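Form 7-S
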Amino acid sequence: MTTWLGRVRPVKAATLSALAVVLIGSAQVAFVTPAFAQDTMAEARIRKMEAEIRALQRQVFPGGDGKFFTPEIGSGQITTATPNAPASTPVTDLLTRMETLETQLQRLTAQVEQTANRVALIEARLGPAPTDAAPAITVPTPAPVAAVATPAPTPAAVVTPTPKPTPAATPVATRPAASTAAASGPASAQRVAAVRAIQKPATNDTGEDEYSYGFRLWEAKFYPEAQQQLKMYVDRYPRHAKISYARNLLGRAYLDDGKPRDAATWFLQNFQSDKTGARASDSLLLLAESMRQLKDTSRACIALAEFAETYASEAAGRLKSQYDVTRNGVKCTK
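Output:
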């Protein structure tokens, strides 16, 4: 009996130890299985995100296929080092890969925004290109100048012709049509050539140059061209040193062109704008002459009386001869 029992006990001990090993192994298998399942699921999600990013790279940079942003984690680096690594390494690996994906997304977003901004800038530059053709159509409207010659004093309709800073070209192109006297065919061509022969000054004072060019046109008796040039000067340089000279000369250009009504409008405007201006006295005396030509004796006499009272020194000095001629041509009661 003792020998049999002695044999039985070692067998039971061996059986129990084998059973314990089996139970422990099964417990380890049961513990590893869910962890491995979680790793594979996370790995599948990461691979899916990487594939989407590569697809986005191909969409933003066609033909590049990862040329601009190379992945910071290779595909063969994922499943090799997990068996003997501690439990924290898969988590840190996933975090680093997530950070890499986020940085790549940020780079792609920034690149897309930069491209959109460049396209917007190019469209903004190319957009307002065909807008310079309109002024060329509106410049040739000298017909109202001839129509405004005789009716009521409306200088606003006369002031409208033309803003462009190239007066040397535009007056030459438009004036032959405005001069209606005997400008047919060859005569108009000769007039254009004669106007072009008058040089425009070019100094550091552009306002002075514009006025001097108008004076030269008036001096050469190109009165319609001088009118347009001087009106442009008055519109652009209302505070220039020669503004009183320009308004007075503009009235003289109309008066010499046989348009005393338009001339009277500019003479009166120059006198009322600044009675102490350099040519305010001239304008008041020429206003009386314009009224005389219009056979408006009462207004001519009023202008002469105002001139003699306001500019007594001019009436006895620089403008004495002109004042005497104008006063002798009008029969005033006083």
